[in-house]
Design a protein that fits this description.
2 domains; five-stranded parallel beta sheet; 5% strand
Amino acid sequence: MPIDPTPIQLFLSYARSDDEEFGFVDPFVSKLKALVKAKSGRALDVFVDRDAIGWGENWRDRLEESVQGATVFVPLLTATYLERPACREEFLTFHTKAQVLGVTELLLPVLVFQSPLFGPDSTDDVAAIAEERQYECIEDALLDGYDSSTWLTQMSKLAEKLIEALLRAETALGEASENDASLTSRRRAGSEASPNADDDDDDRAGLAEHMIEMQRAIDEMGDAANHLNPTITALGSVPGEVGDLPDDPSPKQLQTWTTRLALAFKQPALDLERDGKRMFAAAKRLDEALSGIKQVSIEIGETNEDGPLAEGLRTVISGFGDLSSVEQSMEGLLTAMKPAETFSVPLRKSLRPARRGVTSVRDTIQLVATWRSLLDHLEEPSSRVDS
């Protein structure tokens, strides 16, 4: 009896409200599974929530293991997707982990419906990454119907792209595992490769480089964070500085007041966008540095939770503390902005950068929340056996 090849694992990320309205998930999954099986001979196991894939409540802790196991991540992108914090968190966390491991091909973005929010000029982090990963747009195929040749052609193209990406990722992860095992063996033995050997780790960042980059990223995050409070204060003070509308204003008075308010909001809104994006960019650099430090600690056998590397990681991670109050502050700011955004088009346009800045800060908070899992590889001192 033949043994079936190992199934391919795929996590599907999407906004539930999109599927409730348009019902595209089941046809998408059904056709993709059939085509992947026909083209690769491997079954495709598709998971549509964190519990089903075994991530559960500690999904962030398990996600890196899923990347290492070559799980494919397919986000079904819409404008609604960009508004969902949970969707953004899944997308950005997976991308960050895949980037650290050098297998970003495991992220296969699919654009369900065209939107001005997606494209080369997008200022949204998720949309920008999707553009970089050359998303597949299925809107025309979807509108032609699930029995159309357009749909079959589009899904066939996507299946081929998935299979090719998976093969590249599996090869890269396999080679990385072999190199890491060889390097770890040499480091633990205290030996060096011969002068004529091909040292694969010559260009790899060492502990010193990771520590330097970590400190630079922390400083950058701190500087951006220090600018946030006065920027938010400036945003909040704008209405008072402009003054209230006169009673029973004329159309001209209303237009003048709205224009003044929009102009006053413009600069602090741009400042908030700048600092939010700076903070998130630095957080991604710090995430990569922390992952590198963790990898070095494993390679040299320093997995004792009381060791110096572990203590350093713990100090850095705990230094960020509980960011729930910051997240609540961002939510409060979004709520406070809504009346102005709905009042007029000029106000909505002037506040749009502020909304993007708040989104970047929230993305940063979600990424920081994943760092505690970096300490999970440490063994309890009592469980270690000295050889």
